[in-house]
Structure formats: C-alpha cells, structure tokens
Write a structure and sequence with these properties.
The chain has helices at 19-28, 73-84, 111-121, 141-156, 225-230, 249-255, and strands at 5-11, 32-40, 59-63, 66-69, 92-99, 126-131, 164-170, 181-183, 191-200, 206-214, 234-240. The protein is α/β, with parallel strands linked by helices. The chain has a nine-stranded mixed sheet with strand order 3-4-2-1-5-6-7-11-8, with helices on both faces.
Length: 263
C-alpha cells in the first residue's frame, strides 16, 4: 500500500479502556491519517453480531475521534458508519485486538468478529484481530503490534470479494518467535460445553453466570486455526456472511422432494 488510508475505524468487544484497543490504536496510526475509536463502554465479550433493537443507545465522546457506546460491538459499527462518520466513511474497520484467541467454535460467539461481520453488512472492509496468551501470563501485545501492520496492508491489496472479512490470530509468543503465517479454517470441538453457575443475591433472588468450557486439545485438524497457533504461527482465516452448506443441497432436495439451487 503506497499511501496511508484516510480514515480507519477501531472497535472491540473488551471495552473502550482495554489494553488490546490501545495496541490497535498504535497499529492503526501506522496505516491511516485519521484513527477513530468507537467502542463499547464495557466488556461485551460473547455478544457475537448482536444489535440493540429494544433499548436506546448512549454515546459519549471521550476525546477527539474517540467515543464510548452503551451497546455491543455491532452497535458501535452502526453508530460510527451511520451517524458519527456518515460524512466520510472509514476506508477500513479494525476490530480488536481481542484479549485471547478467537478460533474455531468461538468464532460464532465472538463480539470482535461480530463487529467485522457487521462492517461487511454496512459495505465496509474489515479485519478482526486477536492475541492469544497463556494464563496467568499477560498477553504479548507486542506480537500483534509488530506483525499486524504488514498483514493488514497485505490483506488490503488483495482483489477480494466485497462480502469477505478476515480473522487474524497472533500466537502466544514474543514477536521474534513467530514462525510464519498460515491460512487456516475453523474446526469443531474447541468448546466442550457451556456452564451455568447459579448464585443468590443479597435479597435471596437467584441469578446466573454463563461460561464456556474450552478444550482446544481435541482439535486435531492440521489446517485449523487452533493448529496454526500451536505451531506459533499467525493464523489468518477469510470469513464470509454466506452460511449456506452447499454440500447438503442435493441431499436435502432428494429427501424433501424439493428443487435444488442451480449450479
């Protein structure tokens, strides 16, 4: 990319004060003349593509081109593209850098990726970025900070389908220990189950916490995003809005006495 972008929009699902968003600002400032931040005011992890249709959205300006939104990551993209930046839309939407990998089963639930998908609906190119880490160690943000600019520039130069975004995962190693880049895909099995933890509040009313039980060790596909991170590679996955399973079309048509799509 010979010259910088005019405007880049940043959002995330960890909240406007998250360390990963600060990392992404550093990355974006190497790419664009103007960096806009429109991010959730609090953690919205697990919100996927959720849009707030049943309650009003509050938007607070924190600084020049920096806003906190009371809703989800997808709400932030809509607020930015349809209101705050409607006079000049961003050339690119960057979502992240998420604290922790967004791989395989978790892709469907990720608010980080949900924001990128919503950008596609709005007609904007988008990249979601996540930094893996090994608890209790802190995420190695310098890995994403060093490698993300070159990867994003390369993705922008692709002659790509307009309905396509990218999911980029950085491995849990220092920047100099990264062993290359791998184009990879999602795999099933990284979420073993969901847990519901029941509690009682100070007025003896029940409430519940939901959490996923992750078990990525069962993912054995060598082409998966999980395998890429195991090899200390940066995993890059192209994602589309299209969710049809073309492999099942002919079988369904036969079983249900229906007409299959042409081609």
């Amino acid at each position: 990319m010979s010259k910088p972008l005019s405007r880049v929009l940043l959002t995330n699902d960890d909240g406007v004060d998250a360390d990963g968003l600060s990392c992404l600002v550093d990355v974006a400032e190497t790419l664009a003349d103007e960096v806009w931040v429109v991010a959730p005011e609090r953690d919205q992890s697990g919100s996927s593509h959720s849009v707030s249709l049943h309650e009003p959205i509050r938007c607070r300006q924190l600084a020049e081109r920096r806003f906190a939104v009371s809703g989800t990551p997808s709400d932030c993209v809509i607020m930015a593209s349809q209101h705050l930046m409607q006079d000049a839309l961003p050339d690119l939407v960057l979502s992240g850098v998420n604290r922790g990998a967004n791989v395989s089963d978790s892709v469907a639930y990720s608010g980080t990726i949900g924001a990128a998908m919503t950008a596609l609906v709005m007609g904007l190119p988008a990249v979601a970025l996540s930094q893996a880490f090994r608890s209790p160690e802190p995420p190695p943000w310098h890995t994403a900070r060093r490698h993300a600019p070159e990867i994003i520039r390369g993705l922008l130069e692709l002659d790509r389908d307009a309905a396509l975004c990218f999911n980029v995962n950085f491995p849990a190693v220092p920047p100099e220990a990264v062993r290359g880049r791998t184009i990879c895909r999602q795999a099933r099995g990284s979420i073993a189950s969901a847990r519901v933890e029941a509690r009682v509040d100070t007025r003896d009313k029940p409430y519940y916490w939901f959490a996923f039980q992750h078990e990525s060790s069962v993912v054995t596909d060598p082409d998966s995003d999980v395998a890429a991170l195991r090899r200390d590679c940066i995993g890059i996955s192209p994602l589309s809005l299209e969710r049809n399973d073309t492999r099942s079309e002919a079988l369904l048509a036969q079983r249900l006495d229906a007409t299959a799509p042409a081609g």
